[in-house]
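[job 4417] fold queue: 2 targets
>>> target A
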Amino acid sequence: MRAFRPASVAGSLLLLLVGSPGCAARQIPVWPMMSPQQSLETLNARARQITTVSGQGKLRLTRGRNESLILEAACALKPPDSARIRAWKFGHAVFDLTILPEAVYLAAPRQSPGPTDIALTGRGAAEMIRSWLRMTFDTIRPQTLQHSRDTLVAIQPMSDDLSLRCTIDRRTLTVRSYQLLDHDGREQFCLLLDRYIESNGQVWPARIVGRSRTGTLRLDLRDLQINQELAEAAFQPPARAEKLP
């Protein structure tokens, strides 16, 4: 298994970003009180303005009660359906995951540095990221829109007798959670979004937690850049990557 040297780690991150670092991240703005419908329209419009997101940080993977793996990670996203995450531990590559509209590709060493099976980890990460991108960048068209002074709750039907419950903070117009519920209201998947920051006039969560019956993935990002130009090869799977079923 080939070790990452500091220079190669920096180089891999540079593949995700090109040019100047852009505006520094800062606290997100607070919006004046709007009607529920105006808030939703503004939120949808802002989501459409985001073209790329990139950053680095830590990825925590948890399965069952005792299996947990914490990795260093770098990621690049191109809404609505492309993403790449590279993860390593103690300088050694763990996986390189590329998500494209037509397929998901995973490159991983034969031996992993932890108890979690990397193929399963890659599939779990891909499922979470695809759900995250789809939920975040699909226009919210609720069948039911509940509201209080601080919160909007948008509920819209999905396929297969599922519904999507989206909880929105009205002050900052940011989504705080997505819940995929069955017809009895039982949670099948949950996406928690927290620690929003602003970069280049747009906001994005620095902490993303995906939770399902099979486990939890938590991504804590730093050095976030929004709407920065990405390298042409940012979403090109490495030659050794395998297509996941």
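>>> target B
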Amino acid sequence: MELKDNFLLVAAIDFGTTYTGYAYSTLKEFQTDPLKINMMTWNAGSGGLVSQKTSTCVLFKPDGTFHSFGYKAEDYYTELYMDDKHKDWFFFRRFKMELYKDHINKNFMLRTSDGKGMSAITVISAVIGYLKGHLIEAIHTQAVDVSETDIRWVVTVPAIWSDAAKQMMREAVERTGIVSNQLILALEPEAASMLCKNLPAVELFSADYTDKVDTFRSGAKYMVFDAGGGTIDITIHEALKGGFLKEIHAANGGDWGGTKVDEALEEFLESIVGKAAFHHFKANDIPSVIDLHRNFEVKKKTFKSKDAGKQTTLTSPVRF
């Protein structure tokens, strides 16, 4: 099926390891200012966390139907846990990295922390479907006059994902009713390059720092280092005439994203209380684990290089 070209609005979904969000821009806005991008603001119920993305967590009812996503899923699951009604529910968090594994296929299963399983494509499709509905509602709230057939959908994926993982993502998106001629799966480093081309502050200097160089002039080559929550993608692009990009070195990288910092925190806490005790805490008190990560995320977001070596105070959950 050929791609349609005459779209009035582009909607992009960034399905991340730790956080997920969306943005959109109308054709008129883009023609006036390419950086006029509309984004959602999400608020966590605790921890004082405000972000343009929400936590990549999804909650399903005991019968397997979708209940909630993001901070709402975290908060509702916490309430269930406090009332001891959580055991039959399906709660998934930070599950995107499971798709980085080998031998991915459409029958691949995701597991909750307590071992309950659900098809990965079902989980991902539910998340994308929720974000699609949320985005369309936001568009209508802003009185943007477009129909669903006027929307180009863009979903970003890591460049280092296997073809099988990318195909699973495509199938999951299409299950939500987004047809293939309205959908683009964009590699995350390419999406970053396209944004940087429009940022006025992006400039390079010559090797001797005497002359400014047009970063994205035709023929220019540059490295893209995309450090995300789960993975780091490194690739090299060449700028072509007409605003096009060419990948001149295959994407490389690994699972070295921001969650590695979280793992280091957990290893530190484990060294204090012992491996068995900490693993019991992680497996049996998910709400406290969520609270711990929320508080740590606030610390990470406010950390500056000048703070290196200084003491940081982190409040631990009461149950810990």
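[job 4417] complete. Note on B: Residues 9-188 form a domain with the Nucleotidyltransferase; domain 5 fold (CATH 3.30.420.40).
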